[in-house]
């Protein structure tokens, strides 16, 4: 168990970084293509304006301790940059699809979120002998004391 003042272990940071890098490598090009070409055909000045406004919003939000989705901020900035050139240059059908995906994200996360808290974790004195056999069976049997939380 970690003390309240300690940061995450190095392996957690490394694992998260590798997972993000792998996800970007596998599917990131689709997101980049959608934002750069399908939403609006942005040029270099519009890309600079979108990135600058995204950075300003994210930094101000961080300073004020507000939580936000950096992806949604960046996407909104790209929509704004595209609309700044010409309102008709933004493909609003793609914007609608993205808005629906964002609206479905919160309930989906709420539905999946409790699952990791139900996974069994070993007590500190059992870590060396803990086995997956203590996983509660589908029949609903209760695991022995200390095998899960």
List its traits.
globular; 4 helices; 149 residues; mainly alpha
Layout of secondary structure:
Elements: H1 10-38, H2 44-63, H3 70-85, H4 92-112
Helix pairs in contact: 2-3
Explain this structure.
With 149 residues, the protein is mostly helical. It has a domain at 10-112. The chain is 58% helix and 0% strand. It has four helices and no strands. It has helices at 10-38, 44-63, 70-85, 92-112.
Describe the structure concisely for a colleague:
This protein has helices at about 10-40, 45-65, 70-85, 90-110. It is mostly helical.
The count of helical stretches stands at: 4
User: Any low-confidence stretches, pLDDT <50, length ≥5?
Assistant: none
Distance between the amino and carboxyl termini:
14 Å
Number of strands: 0
Question: What is the N-to-C succession of helices and strands?
Answer: HHHH
Shape: globular
Major β-sheet annotation:
none
Q: In terms of structural class, how would the helical and strand content be classed?
A: mainly alpha
Using the CA coordinates, give the radius of gyration.
22 Å
Average pLDDT confidence is: 78
Strand percentage lies at under 5%
State the helical fraction: 55-70%
């Amino acid at each position: 168990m970690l003390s309240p003042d300690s940061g995450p272990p190095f392996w957690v940071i490394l694992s998260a970084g590798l997972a993000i890098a792998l996800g970007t490598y596998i599917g990131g090009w689709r997101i980049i293509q959608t934002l750069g070409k399908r939403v609006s055909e942005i040029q270099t000045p519009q890309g600079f304006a979108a990135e600058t406004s995204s950075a300003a919003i994210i930094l101000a939000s961080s300073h004020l301790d507000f939580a936000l989705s950096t992806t949604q901020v960046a996407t909104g900035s790209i929509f704004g940059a595209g609309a700044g050139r010409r309102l008709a240059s933004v493909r609003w059908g793609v914007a609608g699809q993205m808005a629906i995906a964002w609206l479905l994200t919160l309930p989906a996360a709420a539905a999946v979120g409790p699952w990791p808290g139900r996974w069994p974790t070993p007590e500190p004195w059992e870590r060396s002998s803990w086995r997956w056999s203590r996983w509660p069976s589908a029949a609903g049997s209760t695991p022995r004391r200390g095998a899960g939380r």
